[in-house]
Amino acid sequence: MNYCVTYVFNFLLLLDTKMTSQFTLDHFDRNYLETYEEVSSEQTSIDVFANLTFRFTCENMPSGFYADMDYNCRIFHVCENSGYGFPVICANDTVFDQRQRICTDEENTDCQRAHEWYYLNKLSYSEEIESRTITEEITDDELKIQENEDAVPSVLPLVID
């Protein structure tokens, strides 16, 4: 009987130790955090842009997001002030809306006119709102809608120095 109680006690103690060590950081292997770099540098990683060529270049472009009209706005480029940039694919059959600078449904965008909105990457968010209210005629109905939402919803360009 005494042996059985000791065995059960040791088993419960071992079980408790196993359960708590899963949830405590002192037993967490810090090298686990570095696996992203290890995985991303493996030769087995897929380069989805390997067979694509881009006419779009980030040279002499301010930092921001730019729709690639050659690929029907399904790809956009993230540009930095240095002239370096990289392409990004919009997910789930969406296209890049240059005016709002987000990936959205295709029926809400006009990819052929995307280049007309490239200048938005030069503006700060407050200047975008101001420029729309000055340059476009706003009806009373639009004014009511505008009170509830921003004039030009935006994703601010990522500034990387």
UniProtKB/TrEMBL annotation:
Pfam families: CBM_14. One of its GO terms (cellular component) is extracellular region. SUPFAM superfamilies: Invertebrate chitin-binding proteins (SSF57625). The keyword Signal applies. The keyword Transcription does not apply. Transmembrane segments: none annotated. It comes from the Eukaryota. The lineage of its organism: Eukaryota, Metazoa, Ecdysozoa, Arthropoda, Hexapoda. GO terms for molecular function: chitin binding. InterPro entries: Chitin-bd_dom, Chitin-bd_dom_sf, Scoloptoxin-like. Residues 55-113 form the Chitin-binding type-2 domain. This is Chitin-binding type-2 domain-containing protein. SMART domains: ChtBD2 (SM00494). Keywords: Signal. PROSITE patterns: CHIT_BIND_II. Residues 1-20 form the signal peptide. It comes from Cardiocondyla obscurior.
